[in-house]
Design a protein that fits this description.
single chain; mainly alpha
Length: 186
């Protein structure tokens, strides 16, 4: 791929990551900090009703684009990126099967995978943005995220930040699917 196409892809995916972050914060705020009357909320109703398709689409894009970066653009993943893939890729099949069967119980199966991937992603982002390269698990001598292969919007969006955004968005969907119906009585 030419550098302009790669830059355009980075910007589009970066905007997607920022949108996931904003929508996740709104959903979590509405879920946990609503008024005492617990009235229905259009946004949370939409997420609750369509969480299987939303989770499938987010996990699909979160599984395809790391492969685009590594197999087409040749940005080889570091050790922490590989571990995040280990916990993200199976969720695609979990959500696809759940969507096929309309099985909302996928929450209990996907939550542990996404939680572990989220913790690895938080650690990865902390090291990427604040850590020293000498103490990192993926140093710059081999395949490393410290090469800053993707850095858009003033360096805020990187490959680790896009992964974290996906894990947060998926965990937010699961939280809404699990907690929203229990709190609201129709």
């Amino acid at each position: 791929m030419n550098p302009d196409a790669i830059n355009d892809l980075n910007i589009v995916l970066g905007l997607g990551a920022i949108m996931l972050q904003i929508l996740s914060v709104i959903a979590l705020f509405l879920l946990f900090f609503r008024s005492k009357d617990r009235s229905r909320n259009f946004y949370l109703d939409f997420i609750d009703k369509h969480f299987l398709i939303l989770a499938f689409l987010i996990s699909l894009f979160s599984s395809i684009f790391p492969l685009v970066y590594s197999e087409i653009i040749n940005f080889l993943p570091c050790v922490l990126c590989w571990w995040q893939r280990v916990f993200m890729f199976p969720t695609l099949f979990l959500f696809a099967t759940a969507l096929w069967d309309n099985d909302r119980r996928v929450v209990r199966y996907a939550a542990p995978l996404l939680s572990i991937g989220f913790l690895i992603s938080v650690y990865h982002n902390f090291n990427y943005y604040f850590g020293e390269t000498s103490s990192a698990p993926c140093d710059a001598t081999g395949v490393s995220c410290y090469q800053h292969l993707v850095s858009v919007f003033g360096g805020y969006i990187s490959i680790p930040m896009m992964a974290l955004s996906s894990f947060v968005a998926l965990l937010t969907l699961l939280a809404v699917a699990h907690f929203y119906k229990k709190e609201i009585k129709v």
